[in-house]
Write a structure and sequence with these properties.
Number of strands of chain A: 6
Largest interface: A-B, 53 and 53 residues
Number of helices of chain A: 7
Order of helices and strands of chain A: HEHEHEHEHHEEH
Oligomer: homohexamer
CATH architecture of chain A: 3-Layer(aba) Sandwich
Largest sheet of chain A: 4 strands, parallel
CATH class of chain A: Alpha Beta
Strand content of chain A: 5-15%
Strand order of the largest sheet of chain A: 2-1-3-4
CATH topology of chain A: Rossmann fold
Distance between the termini of chain A: 41 Å
Chain lengths: 245, 245, 245, 245, 245, 245
């Protein structure tokens, strides 16, 4: 159930303990993909998983601006501090739990949010009256996960399949040639770079020409199935904290 | 320009100092209007004003969850603390200003945000590198403003005109009869109530049967024209702070 | 009972659940009225209402510095951040409630505090062990409320009646001619100005020559009666939060 | 110059870099002395020193509620968190400095504030555009300092001299017999107690019968002279921070 | 140079822009390894790398308590909130930079700190006058990284080599049999567990019997060499933030 | 029991409610004493007292960086804000209490921490599930306390006895001649200085040549005995907060 399309009486009549909060971002995705790429993709995955599930699940509106300071040199990128972001997500989850939807998946579309979401999910689970876990869709696509990049094959493909108007097909060549092959600037496993402008000229990492509608559909199938499975699991999961040893 | 539908290169090529941030809410609007009423209406007003303006204006994604704790007893209402909300808005405006869009209207659809938006706009204007003012659409509709209520004639009418799928027409009678005539519980001009559940049974204030598509169109015309005028004015406004006396 | 003039044993022996916290400000009020105008007026109203009430009410010392950054260009104006102000007021109310005085009116003398007081009263009522409401005296003076201004007829009159030494009668003409007619700089209902120095030369809004001792007495009568009525009402009011629907 | 009794134009015409902020408290002082004892005494000292000084000094209104949680078991005691208190004082000093009064003495009447004032004065001096130092009057009374107690000879005497209405002379015997001889509950120099109710029955420490009007006058003479001397010194003091070594 | 073993004059005479902050933890490491395992190992790596470097590098004392709430059910585990931890590290780095040691490696020994260190390093690099990167030693040991666990082969081996007194050799069998094979409780790549007590009986993950002094030496060689390389690189690295595009 | 040298199972098997947290600092101590002087001395005192006690007491690792901004002009000095420091200590104590070690002495080696430790101990005792008191060793050495200084006879002597490698004996003359006689720059009891560089050339206050191994041993005997006594006392102390009066 998309909460924003429902009335409060319809939500009241929904019998579930499950909710999802899509976590998007408004940030550069190269010259070919819209700034809302992460938001759209998170929404797509959440909606598809909700449809697959037998029991109802409440889906909140997507968080549209998140941790994207690393892309700030590229026009149009919006961001909040990590601390503000965590507070915003935590407050939303607390509201959901207030109504009884206290097992919540944070369905994430942006790599820059992964760590902060894990942190805030831990805080919620340990200290609030709710249980939350983050789910980042492009980590849940099998071997394809290694091709992620930024504005690369995976994100572009999912857009092409579910929101094709948000891809500028005529700029895919530009996107590929002006981008970089790899995220970051590395010594061992240490990334020396903090801003993507340090290693990509046009914001792209990876080759979005490898994307296709078919790939998008495949990614959606795989990720949404795992998400639906996750929802089913946490609905029955023992979320009580373990006793002291 | 809707920033979420643009690429960063398209934003880069946009020559303006103007931006709008629609400020919505996810909160009960009676049994007949969707929880996203405030978000949809704020977006409608912002988009219409942007279309009317000769010069470009950047429109960010709407803030979907805001200060709505007063409606928390009604299922599905989501809220953040006032402090989190102000930080979230401030961070977004700072990002916009970082790209040169440093004159920003906060286009608000929810009464509960009015005070916090004025506060944060003052903080931004005095202490950040930007100028911001809040604009609450239903205050800018002439004499109609007095009929505001909650889930009442104005909000319902604008939805009916611009987003009719979000109104349950068959529940308008229920909405009207189960609601209250007036917002609050008063001694003089002091409202004793802090939660809307203290004075309305079904969340409605006012009679949504007074709404109509025609009224919605009128409201939109009036409010968006004032908003467009506001944008033109601040674009040229002297925003330097006055000297000490 | 003025708490600052009492010993703890006298407070202990006071049987009531009512308290008032006068909220003042130290800020410019034109060339003719003292910087403490708002503090003095808030104290006057609170004391008069306390005298009218049959049951005892504890009156804390006035908060002397509050949200007045908007007047900062005028020498002598003192201010705190909104956040500090709210914390200061909340802590005071929590202390009062710790002693059993858990129904508290925040008796306010300054327009710049109205929004922050409503916010903090909501926080206290929902999350602390107390109930609080703000009362702003110049909103409770019937039709006179429309003549408020700043350092204008109402504030000057109340000073003239209750604290005449704080008005420089010989500067009333200067005050009137160097002031402005209206608070703010407006497009529709949006105030473009954030600092009063943007629209008033000497800090005054309105014509303080319309003030008189008689007007001051009338204002005090009206406002203190409503305040006394408010106290009586909240003393018996059901302050439990409503159940979830 | 008492800032609350002045207009902004009078403050503007005052040529000085000096200011004082009296720091009071609203807290139990036994059955014989008013809850505002610390505020009154801080004001008395500040005013007297201001009168003695040849150059003008701006005196802000007193901070009426401060760090007094240690007395919370005694009715009427009000307090803020240490953090709120520091923010409140810091904001006031920043306002004063904004107008050019950037050398500020925090004239303190309450032992519980000593540490927090030293901390915030350091923060202000190192990180804001101002220089501040705390001055606690009862530490500046020569050998008498050792007789301080709480509601004891020193505080009572200063009240008797400057604000006699705030002492209940007929309860001095009760005050003395129901109080304790010493502040705290000690192992070595560690005070095991955090609340004064752990070691004093009626809130008093020391014997207020040793107070007298004459002693009050003497204390005021000594302390205000040192304070005036302090003001003269800091007015000319090199407040630049030392270079790195 | 170990800063804690030096005098300020010796630090002053040290010509470098490089510093390291070892980041430890005090947390359960099974029945066989001391609670300070992470601290000791971080110190070992930092010291060894410092010795290998031709130029001097300042090494601060280790941060002894960090983000270990996930182990709280096991006695003796100490932790701070993530927010406190980030502030503590940030303040230390700012102090180092104040003295000119403004390129700082955060040499980390605890998996629970990885995300928070990356976040705070970004904040420092973008907003303070310093450049910082985290380095987590057990990520920098080639293929061995996959055997990490908790209190498993890698940590135990490094202790055995560098701090053998901190391993209880006679409990290695117990450690192995009472531990678990894998960190976490997984659906796809989502870890449902937030506390290690949810999936390990005695706190161990992995088989510490696979550890050996020789393995410890190898790990130290590999990791410290990469760390020395990292230090050389950042000493010359262009740390200016990229321009807006 | 040194917690960092124990396994969690060993801590679990320790039957006590007592803990100590040594509070050190990394800050200049003149040309002759190491930057870690305060940490080492706090650890020495805590360990010695632990040995003297009949019952077990848990000793956490020392907090190595604390409130030392006053020494920032001297190279190598590290510091945190007061607020960060208090949070760090509070979190550690809360962790200890989580395991049942809820009576905690903060064994302090640095004068700059005294006030902040008393504040945070009060916060813990009143608002957390623990009781804490600070103990500053050099205040507990009888008449010797008056000779404290900074890097002076007391601190140097304790180092000479317990950690002689951390004293540069050949620089004692330099230390003495380049130091100052007195801490601070005074008017009455007000210290005008906020940074030690305002009154000491080389960071020293007092004459470290008065130190000796014998004096160090004496200081340790006296202070650790009082500390052991304190531990015994609080182990049995009634720590319940007093009732309201």
């Amino acid at each position: 159930m998309q909460i924003q399309n429902a009335t409060w009486t319809e939500v009241r009549d929904t019998d579930t303990n499950l909710a999802m909060v899509p976590i998007g971002s408004t940030e550069q995705h190269g010259p070919h993909a819209a700034l809302s790429t992460d938001t759209l993709n998170a929404e797509t995955i959440a909606e598809t998983a909700a449809d697959q599930l037998d029991e109802p699940v409440v889906v909140s509106p997507a968080v549209p601006v998140s941790i994207a300071e690393e892309h700030r040199q590229f026009s149009g990128t919006l961001w909040t501090s990590e601390s503000t972001f965590r507070s915003y997500v935590r407050d939303i989850v607390k509201s959901l739990a207030f109504h009884g939807f206290d097992r919540v998946v944070l369905v994430n579309g942006h790599g820059g949010n992964v760590a902060a979401l894990r942190e805030v999910a831990g805080t919620i689970t340990r200290h609030d009256d709710a249980y939350a876990v983050p789910f980042t869709w492009f980590e849940e696509v099998g071997e394809n996960a290694s091709r992620m990049g930024h504005g690369g094959p995976l994100e572009t493909a999912l857009l092409q399949y579910a929101n094709p108007d948000y891809v500028r097909e005529d700029r895919l060549d530009d996107a590929a040639t002006g981008g970089s092959r790899r995220w970051g600037d590395w010594v061992g496993r240490v990334n020396l770079a903090f801003d993507s402008a340090e290693f990509t000229e046009n914001g792209v990492v990876g080759d979005p020409r490898e994307a296709s509608v078919g790939l998008g559909e495949d990614l959606l199938d795989v990720a949404s199935e795992i998400l639906a499975d996750l929802l089913k699991t946490i609905s029955e999961h023992d979320i009580e904290r373990p006793p002291h040893k």
